Amino acid sequence: MSGIILKSVTCSLCLLNTFTSSSPLGLSSLRSPLKKMNSTMKAIRIHSFGGPSVLKVENDVPRPVPSEGQVLVRVQAAGMNPVDAQMREQAFSYVPKLPLILGKEVAGDIVEVVEGNTTDLDHQYKPGDRVICCLPCDSGYAEYVVCNVADTLRLPSHVSYAEGAAIYVAYFTAYRGLITKLKIRKDELVLVHGASGAVGMAAVQIAKAVGAVVVGTAGTDEGRQMVKDIGADYVVNHRDSLHLAQAVDMIPNCKGFDAILENRATKNLAMDLKA
Asked: 130 has which bridge partners?
């Protein structure tokens, strides 16, 4: 699946590159030479909810310590996802405790492995291994993170840290929806609603890798071109109220969709169920 990954990250990286630039909030300001580790680290924390101004770079945040089943990773790039902004603005489904380090996915290098943490050969790591991690309790905007071994994957040498940090959330969300839940198969007709977003782009490529016929939707000319470029067979404008009917008319002998991946169910679900 590496071919999919390499074509995948354009949408997420537009956010990631903003964060890892030389701006005051960039991860470049968090990096320091790898020497004997201190008990504290640099991190970006919030102490109140609000706009981007509540993000503060701090130099003396306690460094996490891994326990059995975990590894310590020195962060090289942190992915940014909509949920980060929603939590920062107190607009998520639950209210996190403050202070908080945001960030649900990172790419970096393992610096410490707890002995005896796994007997699974696929999850045996050593210091220096390049990895990506999903963080169930946030904490990615930091110099170091603790990752569960089960949520850690090796990062191939030909994939950059920036690309790696944009893979986990989008691609595993799309994979879970299409493969684990919908169980799509070759030649099925799959609709990806909101295909120009990170999860949508991942979904288009995963569905095409399975051999499905893919219809992607996007609301701008640029977005629709991007969806077409990553492999969608048909692309329609979801800002047009008749876009699903138009999609059906475009496809020879179409009797409806076999599967729909919906990225905005609160708005589109009723319409999807009729498609």
From this structure: 109
